[in-house]
Amino acid sequence: MSTNFNLGGGSKGFRKKKLKPFVRYLEVECWKRAELRELEPVFQAVAEACKQISRIVQRAKTDDLYGDALGADGAPLDGTNIQGEVQQKLDVICNTYMLRAFCGCSKAIHSVASEEEDEPRCCADIMSDSAFAVGDYVAVFDPLDGSKNIEASLPVGSIFGVYRAQPGVPIDGAKSFLQTGGNLVAAGYCLFSATTVLVITLGSGVDGFTLDPDVGQFLHTHEDIRIPASGPIYSFNEANFRDFEDPVKRYLAALKEGSSSVGMRSNARYVGALVADVHNILINGGIYGYPATFSNPSGKLRLLYESAPIAMIMENAGGAGSTGKGRILDVKPTEIHERVPTYLGSVENVFELDQFMSYYGDGDEESEETS
Ligand code: F6P
Question: Locate the Fructose-1-6-bisphosphatase class I N-terminal domain: which residues (predicted)?
């Protein structure tokens, strides 16, 4: 017996909605805001890079793209990256796509800092052409976040942010990157999951675009995303529970008992890829946390290219981003790969976590109830 589905949009089938392509959305937004015009080709190129990464993630197994990155001689690349991780082939490929997207399509970006590079790099160096050293902006990105998820076909993501170089600070080396996230001009992420979704903020509002694989275009599926003011999901790696600070333990206990301001017992969801976990929180409401632990007092997430861009997205969608001691976007980094305890999500949830941190924050003792 055969079953025929009509997905073509005829009167008996599912009607396909006419959705605006990302390119058109960008044209309109950058026309409305003259200060963004110079960056329009950059955002277009980043969307193209996201399409390429989406494809490469899909084809990783069939094209033998798993495993450690190899040098030109076929031997594994020397050592580890700045994060102490052995670079994977996919990390190297995705980093190359992002470097080219930010540097190669216009001269707006002067330099970039990537999770995969020890130091920031000038676009002139990346493009081997001094003409690319004239831009007023710098970009930060994590080309493939959560890459250890790929082997098991779980979601991964890319994260990016763009800053205007600071007036009076020469754009070379790390200095022009060491700005608070509050100075971000734009930020976004791309989630590679059941669907590939690009989420972006260009300074106000947050919009989402789903890749239509048939036409190869990101289409405007999530207009003006607003995160629920409070939500029932919490997304923490609870395997680290014993190492969390007492206020975090108490907060998690309140979520589980249903005594938090959410007003019901919460639900745990943890993918282990930041983009996937925060996208779930952005759409459904709740809180994502990567707290400080006794062994890592600054947590795990990197401020510049993980926590700050996503905090900007959360805030512009009506949510919040906190270190537990204040707004993530107010933290000024002192080095490129600096880490920061990170809480992101619905404003009520993040506010309550901050309240627990300040109320219970002074004692070192573990409470009876939560230990
Ligand atoms: O970049 C850090 C990262 O890979 C995030 O994507 C993810 O949220 C986190 O690490 C997962 O860490 P863990 O395995 O310790 O929970």
Answer: 37-223
